[in-house]
Amino acid sequence: MFRKNSQHVIALGFGLVLVLLLSVTALGLIQMRDVNKRLQNIILQNSLQSDLVFTMHYAARERALLLFSMALTHDPFVREDNYTRFNQMATDFADARERLLQMPLSQKERAILVLQGKLISTSMPLQQHVADLLMENNVKVADSLLLTKAVPAQTKVLEQLGQLIDLQKEIARATVATAARSARYAYIYTMTIGALAVLLCTLVAISVIRRVKRAEDALFREKELAEITLHSIGDAVITANVEGNVEYINPIAEKMTGWTAATAERLPLADVLHIIDEVSRAPIGIQRLLDDPTGGIPGHCILRHKDSREFIIETSCSPILGRADRTMGSVLVFRDVTQARSLAQQLNWQARHDSLTGLANRYEFEHQLGKLLESAQMLEKHHALLYIDMDQFKLVNDTCGHVAGDELLRQIAIILGARLREADTLARLGGDEFGVLLEGCPEEQAQRIAASLLDAVHDFRFAWLDKIFEVGLSIGLVSIGPEDRDLDRILSAADEACYTAKDNGRNRVHLYRSDDQDLLQRRGQMHWATRISSALEQKRFRLFYQAISPLSSEDSAEHYEILLRMVDENNNLISPMAFIPAAERYHMMSSIDRWVIRSLFSTQGPFLRQGRDGRQPHTKAPLCAINLSGTAVGDDAFLDYVQEQISQYNIPPSALCFEITETAAITNLNKASRFMHELRSLGCHFALDDFGSGMSSFAYLKHLPVDYLKIDGSFVRDIVRDPVDFALVEAINRIGHVLGMRTIAESAESEAILEKLRDLGVDYVQGNAIHVPELLTEFPAMTSRADAPKFFSR
Predict the structure, then answer these.
(1) What is the C-alpha to C-alpha distance for residues 600 and 544, in angstroms, rounded to an integer?
(2) 781 contacts: CB under 8 Å, gap ≥ 6
(3) At what angle do helices 402-418 and 393-400 cross, to 10 degrees?
(4) Distance (Å, whole) CA 506 – CA 517
(5) What is the pLDDT of residues 309-334, one digit of tens each?
(6) Assessment of whether the complete model's pTM goes beyond 0.70
(7) Are 88 and 80 in contact (CB under 8 A)?
(8) Do 381 and 375 touch, CB atoms closer than 8 A?
């Protein structure tokens, strides 16, 4: 737009000057002819001389203007036409000067022509040199020479021509005295219009010079800005002309190609850029870029450095367009994405793999399982899924710490992977659970592979510091056939089969069958989990109590065990044995334990704080026994919760006795010991429940702060008839007393059992022979009886 406006202004200005000059000449000649008819010969002679001078003046001026036109135009054809006219004007100037010299001239005229000749000998070679430079497209040098030397020299020539014109006019006035008045008017008119023309010409020249200067400054600024931008951006940039030769290369491109800008300039682009396809590794011809700049190179490819290093790059290419949308070259921009690609691959791997073992994670496992389901449907292939849960992992983790547990998981992953086929997928699904996808594997073969995994882990011994552990696997196996389409159902079936294997004794494989009774039982437990959640929300749990009676009449302490019952939708009581296994399996015991603590403390707080029935004081403070699950004992947050509830309801810790099963204590030995010591330091008591039904190890008893040892009811119940049970109860009672603990016998259902227990020296008894459990609303008044004192319990 700027260039077009400049051209219009220049053309309009010079057009007006030409019109004015022609008008002045025509009017002057007409007036001079009308006024000086008498002097026609003299006027004719003077006119001839004037014409020759004006011809010289016109030719000299036109050559200067043609030089400006050649300097401003970018069109080679226009420049060549101007150059031809430029040379023609030189010929016209010389011819007019030669003819003028042959005419009779005054001494002053010849002196002016001689001086003019000297000036011409200087200015014309300069003008010719400028014209030749412009024809060679050396515009910058030509502009400088034109403005600094050629224009001033030409101006002096024009000044001499002006003097010659003035001299001829003076001669004409002297000669034509009779036409002085008319000639004066004509002269004034002509000079006025000429002055206007000169003024206009000067204004046009000034405007042209300013516009050219602004254009040069704008181009310089754009060039500097473009170069600074290209040097500072983080992408590599290379420009090439239509012949495919490099014209520009920025510093980033220098680093990535190994070529400097000085060495790469004017070299073929194919010598500087060595690009290969990322997938096929085949070279990509640069001619493809030149032929099709917008699509000749794929978006991702590899750039090879001069020293054979390789960069993964993203490329884009655009044509450089000139006038009339003519392609003048191409600009290639490429970016090093090697690190970004590596990071993306790493993140993708991490998103699909377990960071501890390096195996596939659950997300990738389910993705691969989806593929197997598709192949089973489309190709009618048979596959298998193994859902694996480690046995005894929690014991290792709790005994030796998480570092040992992590190392065990890594070693198990290696052992399992060594027994699988290359096409199989082994994944860690979370915690101590693994999954295996056996591709193209019938049921019988899958069972053999699962059995080999069991054997491999069974023969493995995990050593950590001074301890050695045996671990095992519980494996659920599910066959996948063309009829299987539901991924969630497959995973649920595998999970059910795995936990059925665990329930059936661990270290075994359980094959999923839709009519499997064990699985049906497990699903029943899942149903119980839903019912338990509903009962918690709808407050359908009830607290009962049962007395724990001292066998010695000397001990009048009151003991109670809090028992839990659930009320079903029809208002029927449900025994704990119906829902506790499901609550333990589905990790709901912590919520139930919290409900028991909160309900007991909030409703029976006054009784526990007073230590009396409201009418007569007791000889000893009552003790309220509360059962805790293994989950609660191993939960640090539950310990904080108990302490918070004791403080909130102002419960005397000495009135509380927490019962923990032997199995829970051994399984979470470290946490159980910490839990018991923390609460015992407050004044709470502890009883070890169901002793004898689990590990029956007396060694760990020395390390646990236990006050009461409760003998499992399965031994007490047959103590009258079975001498083995009698001996076991006797041994447990004796060891408990040696360790300073008091013993409590459960399931005392008859007077005969009570007599046997009294003979053995058991301290306390609990059972229906003493007290049938009752609903806990408020502890009733106590009535002491020598033969069968009545106490409360849960």
Answers:
(1) 10
(2) 613, 614, 615
(3) 140
(4) 17
(5) 888 887 777 777 766 677 777 788 88
(6) no
(7) no
(8) yes
